[in-house]
Amino acid sequence: MASDPIFTLAPPLHCHYGAFAPNGSGWEQPPNASGVSVSSAALAASAASRVATSTDPSCSGFAPPDFNHCLKDWDYNGLPVLTTNAIGQWDLVCDLGWQVILEQILFILGFAAGYLFLGYPADRFGRRGIVLLTLGLVGPCGVGGAAAGSSTGVMALRFLLGFLLAGVDLGVYLMRLELCDPTQRLRVALAGELVGVGGHFLFLGLALVSKDWRFLQRMITAPCILFLFYGWPGLFLESARWLIVKRQIEEAQSVLRILAERNRLENTCPLPTTSSFSFASLLNYRNIWKNLLILGFTNFIAHAIRHCYQPVGGGGSPSDFYLCSLLASGTAALACVFLGVTVDRFGRRGILLLSMTLTGIASLVLLGLWDYLNEAAITTFSVLGLFSSQAAGILSTLLAAEVIPTTVRGRGLGLIMALGALGGLSGPAQRLHMGHGAFLQHVVLAACALLCILSIMLLPETKRKLLPEVLRDGELCRRPSLLRQPPPNRCDHVPLLATPNPAL
């Protein structure tokens, strides 16, 4: 999603004046103002003194008195990265500015739909197939979006691009998680997040080099076609866990044999047997649904509340844009480092609880003490809230992947990620309402963050424990009872340094 802020950044603008309007200015006089007498020089001076910035939802305050339509072209200047983008090409400002927000909403909805609807194919046909299919389609979709001749075509192809990228993200996350033993899952998950942060910085650098939004779109999507070489036999292996639960024993043995040869290990252990299930039977596993509900709600709030932590002075100047971009990527990198240092020591549940607590504290301070804090204090608490919400989002996704059984992990994790993507809609929705109700929205999200703190304590701890394979394993992953001793076969009573499953 890092590309969307650059592609939809509204530049500072003003009307290109010329002596073509009846009044001698570049602005058109509406019918209800025909009786107003204003000199051409006064109109031009008034219009020239009013320059619209990227933070203004419309241009009604930047036209001369009683004049509201620019008859000629808009002049755009001051874009921090690109020389022009889709907004400047099709003049998506003022009365057409809603199309920019619609594109942002559709792009996020594409991710949410991809996470939600591609989880079932990942469970049904395999993780590898979904990754290869979506990667192969990302290239043509991105190139087609760069060649679109209208804003409507760009919006449609951006939705499809988000849908496909979500499939890539979901499939790769599942494969790298299911490939690792319990002691390595956290490191691999955080390494993937850090690679994503590096991609954000790389994209910003490519944007500075390319300058043209169409060329940039082609440059970042066309090379995805090369990933089809991953389909070469033995190069990009299917998840052995998925093959086992789907009873494809020969294929699973082949994958494990290749992995054993690459790591110089022996593969002589028998594979476990699994049982099939129906969707109706899934409804009977209340503990799995409870974990999904809590983690989905936490992920939604962690993503929704991020836009509330904008630094002071976040206007439309190039310095403000770079500041916001560096803060978003920098806090994500710091969150990964923080999780890598603390999670294996204090557990998933404890650090997730701490992250949401810090998020709630930052929101309450900003809401209650905004008028009494100086700019440095406001910036500090904004960065703290952004950092803690990033950590909560990363950790809730990892914890969800560790408590959902392999048989339904694609669907379950897709649901969690889709809720996180939907949380990202809070920013465009607020801009669609021109900032009205921002305080109330922040209050509601802060209250929900406090509710997350209470619900997180009901989650199980998954540190260094085996992944659940079937629904029964997932049902047994629960928090120990406070009033009685739980039976010894529950996941919370697996030894801390459990022996890895020899079949995996």
Automatic annotation (TrEMBL):
PROSITE patterns: MFS, SUGAR_TRANSPORT_1. Residues 42-464 form the Major facilitator superfamily (MFS) profile domain. CDD domains: MFS_SLC22A17. The chain crosses the membrane at residues 96-118, 130-149, 155-174, 186-209, 215-237, 288-305, 325-343, 350-370, 376-401, 413-433, 439-459. Pfam families: Sugar_tr. Keywords: Cell membrane, Ion transport, Iron, Iron transport, Membrane, Receptor, Transmembrane, Transmembrane helix, Transport, Vacuole. The keyword Iron applies. It comes from the Eukaryota. It is found in: Cell membrane; Vacuole membrane. GO terms for molecular function: transmembrane transporter activity. GO terms for cellular component: plasma membrane; vacuolar membrane. It is a multi-pass membrane protein. InterPro entries: MFS_dom, MFS_sugar_transport-like, MFS_trans_sf, Sugar_transporter_CS. Cell surface receptor for LCN2 (24p3) that plays a key role in iron homeostasis and transport. Able to bind iron-bound LCN2 (holo-24p3), followed by internalization of holo-24p3 and release of iron, thereby increasing intracellular iron concentration and leading to inhibition of apoptosis. Also binds iron-free LCN2 (apo-24p3), followed by internalization of apo-24p3 and its association with an intracellular siderophore, leading to iron chelation and iron transfer to the extracellular medium, thereby reducing intracellular iron concentration and resulting in apoptosis. Belongs to the major facilitator (TC 2.A.1) superfamily. Organic cation transporter (TC 2.A.1.19) family. PANTHER family: SOLUTE CARRIER FAMILY 22 MEMBER. This is Solute carrier family 22 member 17.
